[in-house]
Every structure is written in structure tokens, then in C-alpha cells.
Amino acid sequence: MASLKYEISLLDRNTRFALWQIKMQAVLAQMDLEDALLGIDKMPSILTDEEKKRKDRKALRQLHLHLSNEILQDVMTEKTATALWKRLEQICMSKTLTSKLHMKQRLYAHQLEEGASVHEHLTVFKEILSNLEVMEVQYDKEDLRLILLCSLPPSYSTFRDTILYSRESLTVDEVYDSLTSYDKMKHLVVKPDSQGEGLIVRGRQDRNADDDRGRTQERNHRGKSKGRSKSSNRGKTCNFYKKKGHIKSECYKLQNKIKREAANQKGKQPENSGEADIVEDYSYSDGELLVASVNDSKVSEEWILDSGCTFHMSPNRDWFTTYETVSEGVVLMGNNASCKIVGVGTIKVKMFDGVIRTLSDARHVPELKRNLISLSTLDSKGYRYTAESGV
């Protein structure tokens, strides 16, 4: 049965030598030549001197075939496989004090830039560690987790604090796994049929007709729409009008009041029919109105607290202080339309008291008409919020 032959790249000065060594040893072992790297004197005693020399020559030729011309010209005078192997270590992985200090400096200075790839960051970090091991540099493995956590940008402060203060002991491998999982969740985009759907519900109303008041729909967990049944409100009392037979979200007096206030702010009277342009905090139960959307070309500068969307969302690209373009993901609207997610980043919001809050992992959705703050996201990050009596 013919043995399989595996090709590896030629060794040059840009090759990761520690990994190349492992692959080269595997190639020699496949050809039963790995003993040659120990030296002729250390080969098994059952071999004759001629067999030892022949095995050493074969191993030497194999090493030559896997070197670039740049490296080969520096080691071509070596006559044995073990001498060539040691010379390669001196060229590509020097163990001098200067080389060790340089590699340790790379370890401490390695930082993840805001918006850069976490996968690439971890790859370089592991490469530095493997080089230190080849150089036989001693380091405290418990300190590696702190070095890695300190290399993360400010946007990972919540993750870093959670890791540091939630466990009594932590290995660097656990930090690898936690950071990788966190990064996947951070860049998780919303799929059309997933549970993580942003919800915007349109509410049309006629000021003269009670029967044509805004029908609202919401997406349930199976991705299907369901209407609000009028009969289900029998016996319920409107919190605004204090009358039975309907609920606050269906109160035409409240809707007319909202339209009048909106018209007064804009300096014009409301038309006979149109769409609500002021968002009221309605109860989110059994399909009631959660967020009202306007058919207006002007994007609002106000933020809406939304318990129905999974992520913070905004159509304003200029508001993002950090930004990363994404190529997939959509937000499903209440009218079954979909809006494309084009980016993910951080937005800073100045509160009424002057305090600046940071919204991380916000989605840039240019087609949205409103800026949404996800209450579920705030809750998952440990923030608390309360609401009562419609406020």
C-alpha cells in the first residue's frame, strides 16, 4: 500500500518557525527519518554505521528540499541533519537575550484595536506564546489571562469586569473560549426568521371613525402575524378614557389628542387621516401597539425605549463613534417589510442631566424612521428600568 505524501511550504524568514518545525518533524517521521535529528551517535544501536549515515543523508536532503533559497544559502555548508536543524533554530528562532526581550515586549504591547478582528488578535497572541516556549522563556501562566484581558479596548470593559470578578480562578484557555463566544454574540446579525427581530408597528387611524382605528400586528415567536381581536377587550377599561370596552392603545380620544399635540408642535392642523407621529408608551401584551412609525422622510433625533427589539438601532450613520461594516442581516418590520443592517458600532447619547451614556453593539439600519433603545439588551447587561402608569 503506497504511503501518502504531504507537502509543506518552504521555510523563509516570514514563516512561523515553531509551526514549520512541527510539520517538518511529521514529514520525517512519515519517512522513518526522525531519528536523524538526534544525531548519528544517538540513533538506535541496532542500526549499523552505514545505515545510520544513510538515514542521516536522507533526512538532510529532505530538509534541503523544504528550505527557500534565502535560507538554504545560509545553511548549505552543514553536513548532518542535526547540525542543519540547530542552525535553522539559530537563524529563525534565536534564543539570545535580545530576542527574548523583543518577544516579551511584543506580548505586553499587543493590543486589540477598536473594531479589529478578535480572531486575528488571538492568533497573534498565541503565536507570540508559542515563540516564547520555543525560546524556553519562563512566564507565569496565571498572568497571561490578565495580559490578554488588558489588551482589549474600552468597549470590552463590561466583558472584562465580568470575567475578572465573577470567578475565583480562571485559565487563559477559558479566556480564549469566553472571548470568542462573546465576539460571536456581539456580531450576531438578525435573521428574518429568528426570534431576534426588531419590531416597528404601523398604526393608522381615522379621527372620525371608531371602527377603523389602528390595527396593530406583532411578530410572534413563530414568525407569524396575529391581529388584535376586538372581542378580547370586553370588560377591560381604558386607562386614559376610563371607559370599558377598549384599551388604551385603541382609545380614539387619546389618538386624537396625540395628533393635536403633534400638529401644534409643527405649526399646522392635522389632516383627516394619517399616521401617528408621536410615540406613546402602550402596554405590550397580546399584540397591543408597541412602537408607532411615521411615514416621514425626516429621520427623528429622539430615542424610543423598545422592549420588542433585540438590539439598539439607529438610521443615523454620523452618530456612531465606532463603526464596523457588516454584509448581512435584516430587521423585520411589522408590515412584513425588511430593512437591511449595514453596520455595527457604538453610539454615545447625552442624557437630559448631561450624563453621556454609551450604547454598544448598536445596529445601523438606514431605512428605519426612529432610533430604538433595546430594553432587553439593557436588561441582559445588568441595567434596571422601571415603568408604571404608562411612564
UniProtKB/TrEMBL annotation:
Residues 196-238 are annotated as: Disordered. Residues 221-233 have a biased composition (Basic residues). It comes from the Eukaryota. Residues 203-220 have a biased composition (Basic and acidic residues). Residues 303-383 form the Retrovirus-related Pol polyprotein from transposon TNT 1-94-like beta-barrel domain. InterPro entries: PolX-like_BBD (IPR054722). This is Retrovirus-related Pol polyprotein from transposon TNT 1-94-like beta-barrel domain-containing protein. It comes from Gossypium anomalum.
